[in-house]
Each structure stands twice: as C-alpha cells, then as structure tokens.
Fold this protein.
Amino acid sequence: MSDKISNQNIGKSTLSIWGGEQEHELYERSTQVPVVHSVSFAYEDIDTWHQVALNQLPGHIYSRNTNPTVRAFEDKVKELEGAEAATSFASGMAAISNTLGTFLKPGDRIVSIKDSYGGTNVIFNEFLPPLNIDVTLCETGDYEQIEAEVNKGCKVLYLETPTNPTIKITDIKRLAAVAKAVGALVVVDNTFATPINQNPLALGADIVLHSASKYLGGHADALGGVICGSKELVEQVYHYREINGATLAPMDAYSFIRGMKTLKLRVERQNENAMAVAQWLEKHPMVEQVNYPGLKSHQGHEIARQQMSGFGGMLSFSVKGGLDAIKKFLPKMQYAHMAANLGCVETVVGPPVTTSHVECTDAERAAAGIPEGLVRYSTGIEDIEDLIADLEQALSYLE
Ligand SMILES: *Cc1c(COP(=O)(O)O)cnc(C)c1O
C-alpha cells in the first residue's frame, strides 16, 4: 500500500492484503513482498551508512535489528491493530518474555489472571519471582479482586481474553481504566481473538501482542510473535529484543504475510463454524459443558458482544467420563489433528494436559480449574456439515 493511504476508513480485509506492502521495497517490479535472505545491507558511502544506522534515514543495517520482509509483516499487523508501531519476534513466547523483560525491573509488581496461556504462567510463577518481581495472579473474572490488586499499585496489568483453554472473557475497557488511574501499562494477549475480532488498543490497552504462529499465519507452518502499541513503548521493546536477539526470520515473516492475506476470510469462517459446533455440542447427551463466548449460556457473553466483533474460532467442552473418555473418542476424529497448535485452517483438537497446559503439574491444572475431561477445539475452515458429522461419529464411541 502506498505511503499516502491512511488506514482511517479502510476495511480489515483490504488492510490485511495491502497493509505494509511498501511499493519501494518490491523488488524488480514483483507484485509480492520479496523474501530478503540477507544478514546485512551494504552502503556505498560511510555518511549514508552512518545516517541509516542512527535512524536518520530509512533503511536496514543488520537483520537481527530490521529486515525488509520482517518490516512488511510488522506493518501489516500494525495497520490491522490500528497502532502507531509494531515489532516482531521469533515466537509468541519471545514476544511475551521480551515485553515483560522490557517493562519489569527488580522491585516492580505485575498483576494478571490465573487463566493465562501455560507458557506465560511459567514466566509468572518460575522466572519473574527470582528477579524480585512481585507477581499477583487473580481469579479470572473476579473484577473486585483484580481492581483491588491493581489499585495497590503495579507496573503492568497483563490480560488475555478469551483465555486458553477455558475460553473466559475479561472486560478490557473496564480494567484498562483502573490500570491507567495508577499509571500501570496494560498488555493484552490477543492471539485467540485476532485483530479481526478484537482491537485491545481501541479499548484502552497500551500493548497488544500475538502469537503469529496461530491465526495470523493460519497454516501452522511458521513460528513468530508480534506486538503493537505507541511508537515510544514499541521502541523500548524493540531495543530489548534487538539486543537479546529473538528475531523473526525473513522466511517466517513471508509465511505470515502470505497467510494474512486471507486472515479475514478465514476468521469469519471460523467464527461461523465455531458457533455452529458449539450450539450442536450443547445439545449432545455426552457433553457436560461447552465454553464458547458466542453462547448465551457463557458467563462472558455480554462483555464479548461489546468488545469483540466476532466470537472467534476457539471453544472447549468437557465430556462425561473424563480423560478416559477423551482417549477413546478423540482419536476417532477424521477431520481434526490431535496436536498442540491452534488457529490454522485445519480443525485441531487436544486436552489441556498435552496442549495449553503441558508445562503444568496435575495439581496446577486442578488449581486453575481445568477439568481432566476438557477438549480444546480449534475450529478449522472445513465445511460445517463435515465437522459436525465427524464429531457425531466420534462421540458415538462413548455411548
Ligand atoms: C501459542 C500461544 C502463545 C505462545 O506462542 P508461540 O508462538 O507458541 O511461542 C501465547 N499466547 C497464546 C494465547 C497462545 O495461544
């Protein structure tokens, strides 16, 4: 997209196709962003080189810092999140650890919820406390507790909504206002919602982050992460990352650029499929509970309706008979990988014990309120009739 076009009134499908595609970087009149496999960038005179190095002229110096393909990916996400700046990482966990590493110093305090992604919880429980960083994890959805803890003062309020794998919803706008009042930074993991369904910056967050390995890429063939926010905050995280070195590789950035061209098409289809699957599961006799924010029975339904434009492709459900029942019926599914990832075009299923919370002990999972009989279901873009028929035949092994 030409530099002249502002993203004010442009639709998200148009932005995910044209955003970040700077014409001056398209090589030899190629229509697609080139994969620039070059560690360094050469200059013809020292003065220009020096000015680029000082950020006084546009350009690239060394690919651990910036790279044209990686930059195009960052700009695309930036446009979709309506942000001033973005920077990227070798994985979603690198996005999280580098962001927390940038803003938290010994003596600081972070407030978050108990239902964050398993890897994020390891950072909270294992890595931050020895650095003399105080971590307070509140019951997800207990606004009184979260607000009281934030009001005691903290450097960062860290949220994830919807959560993994219990699909709980947290009111971003409400908590961001409380955090602002005590001068805390609000960081939101938007991986599950995608920028198509939810834009946390517009709800008051300071930093929004994604595991690009999931919906942004959409094809489960590249690992990466990205954060967006104000130029000032993103530059601080960029500086931390360029030195610590968790840089996104150009080929993976290209896979994300390619994947993101169909982001809105995919996510809209996943929203529809997930709703149909959730409604069907809710009526099944072997299913105990269905967690999907699109269902009226979901405790976060009203907030989800306000802060999301679609309810997403992720749901979870528990079956009668616990883990034994899961071991019996999940392998019977034909159109679903039993795998640890999510957010791709194929349907993917698995229990938390081998997916989101593989890092946790049985006791930690129980404390987090994750039933042994839970299945996380990442809806693909297959035909809905086939997905439901597949669930029906697999669940019939339980009756
Ligand atoms: C997968 C995931 C992460 C971690 O991302 P990686 O790319 O696997 O490092 C973080 N948060 C959420 C919500 C995720 O689903």
Observations:
- The first strand starts at residue 85 and ends at 89.
- Residues 263-282 form the longest helix (20 residues).
- The pocket of pyridoxal-5'-phosphate is lined by residues 91-93, 117, 119, 160, 164, 189, 191-192, 211, 213-214, 223, 225 (CB under 6 Å).
- The CA atoms of residues 237 and 269 lie 34 Å apart.
